[in-house]
Design goal:
0% strand; 2 domains; disordered N terminus; Cytochrome Bc1 Complex, Chain D, domain 2
């Protein structure tokens, strides 16, 4: 009996070791495949530029889905489409493995952009006014994220993206926490205008089209503030 248990334990150990070696190999291959992505998304998937998304720590199945959508043209992205076109299924899996295995970085303390004033003729806001405005937007975004808006029928983000914006892995809903505010604003605006998807029955299009520009900005700042 003891011999049998030892044999079973040894087999399980070998299987676990094999899995680790496979994962490491896949990650290594993915890093090489993702080398050309580093210019926009950062070497480890933590983009330093506000307009480009962080990919580190993103759910693998979401990344795989998006790369296939870029490749097929289902997701409208002139910059990504030609890059994804040259990827086969194995390369897509390897790239997704690599980014999913990395940790997303927290954002530095948020601040309003210098050109964020709504009225160009109004006096420039002081730093204290900008801090107060940012705090107001984050609070508004947090309420909209958790509760939605019954008056305008804007759905709560929490339903799909989770209480901490961790996403939903089985459903391939993306993790959003610590994402760049600029990228979230661009994404929601692209959904709203139809610049991201052709399908007007897309769930995110139907939500974003009901959101005001301020609501989009507020949700973006709130999500960017989450660790």
């Amino acid at each position: 009996m003891i011999k049998t248990l030892l044999t079973a334990a040894a087999c399980l150990g070998m299987l676990a070791s094999t899995d680790l070696v496979f994962a490491a190999g896949s990650s290594g291959a993915g890093k090489a495949q993702a080398a050309s992505c580093a210019g926009c998304h950062g070497e480890d998937g933590n983009s330093l530029m506000d307009g480009f998304p962080k990919l580190a720590g993103q759910h693998k199945n979401y990344l795989v889905k998006q790369l296939h959508m870029f490749k097929s043209g289902e997701r409208l992205a002139p910059m990504m489409a030609p890059l994804a076109a040259g990827l086969d299924d194995k390369a897509i899996e390897e790239i997704a493995d690599y980014y999913a295995g990395n940790k997303i970085s927290a954002n530095p303390p948020l601040s309003l952009p210098a050109d964020d004033d709504e009225d160009d003729d109004a006096p420039a806001k002081t730093e204290e006014q900008k801090k107060a405005e940012l705090a107001r937007l984050i609070a508004k975004g947090g309420d909209l994220y958790r509760n939605g808006d019954l008056k305008t029928a804007v759905s709560a983000c929490i339903a799909c993206h989770g209480p901490y914006a961790e996403g939903n892995r089985p459903a391939a809903y993306p993790s959003l926490h610590a994402q760049h505010s600029g990228y979230i604003i661009k994404t929601l605006t692209d959904f709203k205008t139809g610049a991201r998807v052709k399908n007007k029955e897309n769930m995110m299009y139907m939500i974003a089209v009901k959101m005001s520009d301020e609501e989009i900005k507020a949700v973006a700042y709130y999500i960017a503030s989450l660790k």
